[in-house]
Amino acid sequence: MSEKKESLNFIEQIIEEDIASGKHGGRVHTRFPPEPNGYLHIGHAKAICINFELAAKYGGKTNLRFDDTNPITEDTEYVEAIKKDIQWLGFQWEGEALFASDYFDQMYHFAIDLIKKGLAYVDDSTPEMIAEMKGTPTVQGKNSPFRDRTIEENLTLFEGMKNGEFPDGSRVLRAKVDMTSPNMLMRDPVMYRIKHAHHHRTGNQWVIYPMYDFAHGQSDSIEHITHSLCSLEFRHHRPLYDWFIQQLEIFPSRQIEFARMNVAYMITSKRRLLKLVQENYVTGWDDPRMPTISGMRRRGYPAEALRVFCDKVGVAKRDNLIEVELLESCVRDVLNRDSERAMVVLNPVKLVITNYPDGKCEKLSVEINPEKPELGHREVDFSREIFIEREDFMEDAPRKFFRLSPGRDVRLKHAYIIHCNSLEKDEEGNVTEIHCSYYPDSRSGNDTSGVKPKGTLHWVNAGSAKKCIVRNYDRLFTIPEPTVDDGQDFLKFYNEESLVVNDKALIEPYLLRQDVGKSFQFLRQGYYCVDADSNDETMIFNLSVSLKEGWKPGY
Predict the structure, then answer these.
(1) For residue 136, what pLDDT is reported?
(2) Domain extent listing, the chain
(3) Which of 50, 109, 260, 450 could make an SS bond with 231 (beta carbons 3.0 to 4.6 A apart)?
């Protein structure tokens, strides 16, 4: 029986057709071209995976190129953060990182070529006048009164723009395409604008900067990119992308669009993400509630989980909204396999085992991760006084409450079965101490008691438990699509309870001085990772994801 042929997505089909036809000598060369004006987010993760993985599949290469054409919004901070994110995801670009600014000289000469061909002109109109002349999707545009300047005059003025002879906003260079085109982007788009601003790489060498639509395709062409992969919002830019390449008669890079990553309860607008940061709705770009790669890394999402998520979402031609539960499921699967286990009590109440010898402390050997027995065991202290979760005790419990209540038995994880005898309360009626007895012959792994409890509780030893801070995170917004264009401010849907800080939690000593970013499964609670704010005195843990869908740990 013949092997079933792998199902290809539409980009793979295009690539395989190009390879079969011998186009570009069978080469596959992609690129990831972020603008260094913010941190990468979940949408970029998909673009990164597509570009790097497709190139690798076909024995090709992937460039990292920063499209740094706007000096006002760009910064080396973003450059370094983007590099870190890509490498953390598990990818490495070809050679050194590249920059559109590497090609500013070449782009300037491309613009000169278009002027000499009568395909570009200097326009003195204001931005408002240019916008008005462009018309609307249903009304044709009108030619600029400067459209018919002579080639010589345009060359002289453009050189003057380059030499800093004119103030910002006074002149632009426009392509002479078609002011009647149904595609608004083809109505004599601006190619260059004047910006007397310091560039993070070229300093003050330039005072004119190419627009994205002019720089992007030409950078692809200079690098001999065979397949320029981008998200669907750029599909209307493709005719202009092709027009510049054709008129300049340069390497014919091909733009191909795929559906962008839209995940419920997340936003991917850099402008809106920046607003969250600047107005202190979050603590920074790497806040664990943010949909940024750095935020998800700090939250404890494994890089593998993001790659698996992007693979499950697939490569489509039509935008749709991806359920966040799929992402959480991918995170949960990887963490369940890889995370070490530990016991943490988030809301402690003391429990005294009245018949356990006073002053005795047992060392219990417990598995670090049942999924990975090769990791071995850790020791847990057990003695007369322990702490359990307050929500695991109920004084007047219903029949199907399978935790602790007076007259009932439960097992303490890795330890003994206990029987609840009595309790103490404060003046306000809150339970302050639970009194139990234990069955000495019921130790886990060597139980001969014959007692059959219906529940198992986690706990920490009172004598050795340490305080920590636990940050429980929920979704940043209260509705799946906070940026739907309905006239509402997206901040109206900001979730005021997206972060709840718990400073009462108690951990077993095993969790002290663990490495930043290391993930643990807090038994019966969720998956947590060590936050960068931790120090020798205080461990801080971030909730990555709950143990199961639709269930969150108590605060």
Answers:
(1) 95
(2) 10-258, 270-340+469-546, 349-458
(3) 260
Does residue 480 carry a pLDDT above 80?
yes
CATH number for region 10-258? 3.40.50.620
Instruction: List b or e across 12-41, with b for residues whose CB sees 16 or more CB atoms inside 10 angstroms.
Output: eebbeebbeeeebeebbbbbbbbbbbbbbb
From the list 31, 35, 384, 408, the catalytic residue is 35
- Digit-coded pLDDT (tens) for 304-327: 999 999 999 999 999 899 999 999
Task: Provide the token pair at 549.
Answer: 């869908």
Q: What is the pLDDT of residue 5?
A: 56
Q: What is the mean pLDDT of residues 45-55?
A: 97
260 is catalytic: yes
Q: Which of 23, 27, 147, 260 is catalytic?
A: 260
Among candidates 95, 490, 56, 457, which has minimal Cα distance to 266? Answer: 490
What's residue 507's pLDDT? 97
What is the rounded distance in angstroms from the CA atom of residue 35 to the CA atom of residue 87?
A: 17
Distance CA 251, CA 226 (A): 9
Q: Among this protein's residues, is 187 annotated catalytic?
A: no
Amino acid type, 63: N
Q: CB under 8 Å, gap of 24 or more: what pairs does 482-491 form? A: 482/265, 482/267, 483/267, 483/269, 483/272, 490/267, 490/272, 491/275, 491/281
- For residue 450, the SS3 value is coil
Does 1.10.1160.10 match the CATH number of domain 270-340+469-546? yes
270 is catalytic: yes
Q: Which of 27, 270, 378, 466 is catalytic?
A: 270
